[in-house]
Fold these 4 entries.
Entry 1:
Amino acid sequence: MDGTCRPFFAKITGMNTYLVLLRGVNVGGKNKVPMAELKKCLEALGFSSVTTYIASGNVFLASDKSAEEVQAMVEAALPQCFRLDDELIRARVLTEPQLRAVIENRPPGFGEQPDTYHSDAIFLMGVDAKEAMTAFSPREGVDQVWPGDGVIYSQRVSALRTKSRLSKIVDSPHYKSMTIRSWATTTRLLEIMQSLSAENE
């Protein structure tokens, strides 16, 4: 999917529209998961209207199963469908209202000055925001982080990004429970999901 063209999204009674955020795929040449092959893998599990957005692991699908069931199925299938360098590939499954809440409940002004700040939504899996915040050691005048519901909002001054301490989160055990999306990608995902949800009504 190129962000502009979308396949017809199935209008099936009782089907839920989900966004699946995959952690750790197609990063630094590791855990290569071609999006076309991912689509086939998920369709083989019985999910319908599977479509992807860019290669960082963003998948939309329709299912009559719960978000928890979808997560478990996706996480179990990926090591079977692909040869992965790291088997710790996790998924965060969101409904459209949940994704919308992430954006609506952002800190005041967050993401509104893209020329000045680089802003990210750090989605959490199996860890709450209060606990995950211990992984961060923001540098004064460069970094800022805020806890949210199932997400951490991270912002750093673009001109000082080489001084940012955001990369230090990789040393925390909580890093394996996080997947990061730029704010521009996050808001674009909501736009797409709202369109898909409307088509599925």
Entry 2:
Amino acid sequence: MRFLSTAVAAGMLLLGVTGYGQDKSPEKPKELKSQTHCPVMGGKIDSTVFTDIQGQRVYHCCPSCIPKIKADPDKYFKKTAAQGILFENIQTTCPVSGEAIDKSKFVDFEGRRIYFCCNQCIKDFNKDPQKFLSKMDQSSEKPSSDMEKEHDTHEGHGDHLHGH
């Protein structure tokens, strides 16, 4: 009996190991669509009514939707991300360093396409996205002292100066 249970355990282990390391074809990425409907009320968007929030331009069906998205932006970004909606990006600076963005360096995060200046800033963003999303609503003309401090201290930026 002991032999049988050992053989069963070895067989289960073997089955588990044979699946390990095999390449699985990656899931096809969800096709992203431009915004056509208000994330708050669901009506067709009016291109003259919008909120610029967290580096994104979010269009609405009416002005009464503006305070609702400002009160809980994550709720609406997550909802539209699940629908494959990608908002219009209006960023001019990296949310981590405050430097000019490189359109080839980006992350799609819950309905937002976030651009960065370099790969190190992407890594820093991924550690704490909410920290940097809130900074994106601040003036993008000049980095705040917190952004400058973050940029000067994060690892890996010593190899290029970002205009410093």
Entry 3:
Amino acid sequence: MIVWKRGRMTGDDDERSFFSEVPVRSAAKARPVPDEKPGYLGHRDRLRERFASAGPDALPDYELLELLLFRLIPRSDTKPVAKALLARFGTLAEVLGAPIGLLQEVKGIGPAVALDLKVVAATAQRMARGEVHGREILSSWQLLLDYCRAAMAFEAREQFRILFLDKKNALISDEVQQTGTVDHTPVYPREVVKRALELSATAVILVHNHPSGDPTPSRADIEMTKEIIDAGKRLGIAVHDHIIIGRKGYASMKGLLLI
């Protein structure tokens, strides 16, 4: 008789009877069971097929963001991450425009993924700028607005940007002259005119953003614009418009008959 006590023999057992009672594990059971294919991989394939066959307009923002995250987060379900980003920031444009620090506050977004999203945003801005560079700006107004929105709408601080134009109103240079606080940017009319002369520009379009999201011009915005107009007139430099960009849209001072 064999009495088991934590793998040891008792009584008159010998080694042969002890080892003869050890169960033999079959070779089939010893082989590891292969992992099943994660369910999200099939979802990724279907989403890619929809994008390829129906185009980007057939996909809502969260699915388009999913497609982007497939490459950035290769071994995880990205649908919850995409939905969490949109819940936090609102739109796909606002996700790409969000600061790196805020992106990392969303579960599933680490430093590398946050940086990659900003690379995508920078690429989109560069493409938009390429659409307006060298064009006659006044006849490409919507392209200009799209570029300014991509570049400035989601900045956390105010930026004052100047678009310098030649005598045919083609874009010579696009420069951020000043960066301020969340609600104020110092602007110096003499510096605006000086830079226009350096670039041989005959006209400018002024652009700045309101981080609050509301593009309504303030009294200070209007007064500062008039000062730049007066300074430019003396030297033959026209101010075509002053555009204010916000997350909720834009405002044109010329369109509002403020200048």
Entry 4:
Amino acid sequence: MLVLRYAPASPFARKIRIAADLAGVTDRLSLLETNTGDPQSGLQDVNPLGKIPTLTLENGETLYDSRVIAEYLDHLGGGTLIPGGEERFLVLRHQALADGLAEAALLQVYEGRYRPAEHRVQSWVDMQAAKVARALAAMEKTCSAPTPRITIGQVAQACALGYLDLRFGGEWRQQHPGLVAWLDDFAARVPAFEATRAP
């Protein structure tokens, strides 16, 4: 059995859970909810970076980060999420854009959660917010039309937008109607998106 260390609110772990479902390998996956701040969780024993998601294989080896894990699960499922040829690189670029958006949003959350107020740097927070804004604009322009095939780029995009809904109250929605419609379509086509929503 594969063991996935995850946290419900993580957009990267959510991406992996959805990818596993779409690849048809969910039945091979055991979920282990993990607190990255708990030194007793055992996470650092299997991933020196102490980050989630982390996937432990049946032979005891571990895989990280989410892009590597997604590729592995897609391999197990027969290659449904990451195409070959030139299209592969467009899909991987889409995933990188969506992951970058999620990372910039996460860093804003961490700044407020972990840094004392007197040490916060507003210019740094603003820089992360600008990354999110540019990524949303790029997605609205080039990634808001539904396509027949679901790719890992689309999964990553849905999870990034879901994270903005979770942590930023869905503020992005007002200026990006194309992405709102796209996400509604994705959610209707991919039941795992709703099933993996953080409480």
